[in-house]
Design brief:
316 residues; alpha/beta; 7-stranded parallel sheet; 3-stranded antiparallel sheet; 14 strands; globular
Length: 316
């Protein structure tokens, strides 16, 4: 099968890993959120791209889900001794990647070219692509004012109440040609929205000019996996954000945000009762249930294979 996945963050990276285990090399294309990219200490930081890269390369910190395994902190320690702010932690191996990215930028490479190069250097068989090549920062609108993403997410630890968002790519930037080609491929078997935060990871991708239309017009079915189980986020502030925006914390509500292009949403067995209790609307997508919590590498593969099975059924 040939599959395109949209993702960002730890949950998305886990499913991308399961998909990489389940499809042939070169048949998986992952389009990653870059709304949280920023510069720190003069280094170009791409947190979601790097989390997905490290996870697919098998070098991610398994306990925290982001950053490198077997990391050291000599540079961060030296910054502290110099009295520099330390709210954003960068390990030595991580810094090596950012320095290399800066080198590739200086050589004139686009973010897409850099991402593909890094994937090859880390021996990742998956095509790893940013949602757009241009800087497209997400701004979080809160009860304490507008904040750059990392200010809200890392420095303030998601504490401010969210009132809305501004997505940097909205109606301005186009997806990279490689991403467009993957979504328009005649032999595409399916598109998967990974269980990433719908506001912080998926919405920035969908804000890229023409992205929703590409999904709506795709020849292949579109499937999403809920990031919500039992009224709570599997990881991160998704449920908190939904409550602050006055939205019911439910996978059904997330699915309705995607109903202009979504064919089916996979929700956890724990939420099966929602389907019986809810008044589904005619234009709601289909819903399927399974266990979607990914604790182990085997869980990732099992969920990925369930997604591929659903896509085959929808395609047939």
């Amino acid at each position: 099968m040939r599959v395109v996945a949209l993702c960002g963050g730890v949950g998305g990276a886990k499913l991308a890993d399961g998909l990489q285990q389940s499809v042939a090399p070169g048949r998986l294309h992952v389009i990653v959120n870059t709304g949280d990219d920023f510069e720190h200490r003069g280094l170009p930081i791409c947190p979601d791209l790097d989390t997905v890269l490290y996870t697919l390369a098998g070098v991610a910190n398994a306990e925290q889900g982001w950053g490198r395994a077997d990391e050291s902190w000599q540079v961060q320690s030296q910054w502290g001794e110099m009295g520099l702010e330390s709210w954003f932690q960068l390990g030595d191996r991580d810094i090596a990647l950012h320095l290399h990215r800066r080198e590739l930028q200086a050589a004139g490479m686009t973010l897409s070219q850099i991402s593909l190069t890094l994937a090859r250097e880390f021996r990742v068989p998956t095509e790893l692509l940013p949602m757009c090549d241009e800087p497209a920062p997400t701004t979080v609108l809160t009860d304490q004012g507008a904040m750059p993403f990392q200010e809200y997410f890392v420095r303030r630890r998601c504490a401010p109440a969210v009132r809305g968002f501004r997505y940097g790519a909205a109606r301005i930037f186009d997806p990279p040609e490689q991403a467009r080609s993957a979504l328009e491929a005649a032999d595409l078997d399916g598109i998967i929205l990974c269980p990433s935060n719908p506001y912080l990871s998926i919405a920035p991708i969908l804000a890229v000019r023409g992205m929703r239309e590409l999904l709506a017009c795709a020849r292949a079915p579109v499937l999403a996996i809920s990031p919500i189980i039992g009224g709570a986020a599997v990881k991160g502030p998704a449920a908190k954000i939904m409550r602050e925006l006055g939205t019911p914390v439910s996978p059904l509500e997330i699915a309705r945000q995607y109903r202009d292009f979504l064919d089916v949403m996979l929700i956890d067995e724990a939420d099966a009762g929602l389907l019986a209790a809810a008044a589904l609307e005619p234009d709601d997508p289909q819903f399927e249930t399974t266990s979607i919590l990914m604790r182990t590498s085997a869980d990732r593969r099992i969920l990925a294979e369930r997604c591929l099975e659903l896509l085959r059924r929808l395609r047939d």
